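re: ur question from earlier - yeah i can do the single chain one, its not a big deal. heres the input i used so u can compare w yours
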Amino acid sequence: MSKHHNIYKLYKWHSLVDSVYCSIVTKLSSEQFFNKGWGDRVSFEKQHSLFVEKLKQWKEARNFGKPLQGPSIAENQLQWTYDSASSYSSSSPSYILTRFNKKQPWLWNRVAEVWKLRLREACFLSPATEGLIETGSLSSFPGETRMARFLVVEPLHSSTSTLVIHLAATGDHGYNRRLFCFALPLASSGISSVILENPYYGSRKPAHQVGSKLAYVQDLLLLGFATILECISIAKYFSEGFGYRRICFTGLSQGGLHAAMAASLYPLPVATVAAFSPHSAVPVFTDGVLRQSCSWNQLAATMNEALVTESLCTIQHTEGDSHQIREYYDQASSQVGQYVDRKEQTVLSLLSNALALSDIRHFPQPANPRAAVLLAGENDKYVPKDCVDMFSRAWPQMEIRWIPSGHVTGFLFYRQHIFQAILDSLARV
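and the output i got, formated as tokens:
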């Protein structure tokens, strides 16, 4: 009896941390997610068609064994803005320089010196802009978000050709968290890293956005689309230009989902580590604790501007895929209906449809699904347990590792498990 009681208390503690943390962040913020509503319907429909067409092309290429034609970075498109090896900085404003010291990048020089590293920052035009220009919907992708930035962390005396690309979790602004928690420990093992600053965060945050709270539902899909293309572009650039042969895409929470999506579209086998990540953004905002951080009143007040209809959210799949995904959303809507009134249920249903493209099951399996690891928290209040089952159905050869933690405590106290998962996944490439 005592043993079961202690397990229950431990479960309650991890879950409580998630709930309390989310409540505190929500109360401290002056805005909620989607506080300006749904976004521009006309541009969304164009973008939705673009996303669907790209996914269809990539999935057909994967199914028929054809090479996937992904985005890339031309040498003349990339601008290096900082290099610790020469204390070089270009005239282009560097996030490193403006964020930490406007005169001298002393912090980064010191980090490079102590850890025996070379740190470099670069920027390039996000490849997402190309498709948005073609569809005439670039205006919905704010100017601040269009220039991608990344930090390269390279051990000075390493002979390995291994690279890990770190994508950001929700609210992970800048480079610091991923640099000190993951990139520096990996550098001690001779492994290089690239830390991408996601659109809508840090120096890429739109002027109208408050903190990490995306103003429009449309922003979440644009964030994902741009992040995936930027990740693939960076991987191809370092693979072809610098000889990196073993590459891992990784991230926590939202970053892990984007890493998995990028891996599924990358033309070569890569390692993938998704930590405490959902299979889709839908249950995170409709069923997890983040639900309390959404501006439901604003979404309800602007329902006539909702981005999608039932016909628009339909995506081509095999019959089995379509049946499973539709069954999942029907079940979710049924459960929602037990707790909310009809108007709220309508808003939740509209949001589920609008975010349908964020589901990993819409993407092809990666070239090497055996090199994928999903770490899941047993007591995660942000990511419902059903997400793990959905993820494993999409990638049945992926390894699932259950961690006795919640979402927040998983990051705080189980980073070594993530580090080990990265090493293990790389060993399978």
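Residues 2-426 form a domain with the Rossmann fold fold (CATH 3.40.50.1820). not sure if urs matches, ping me
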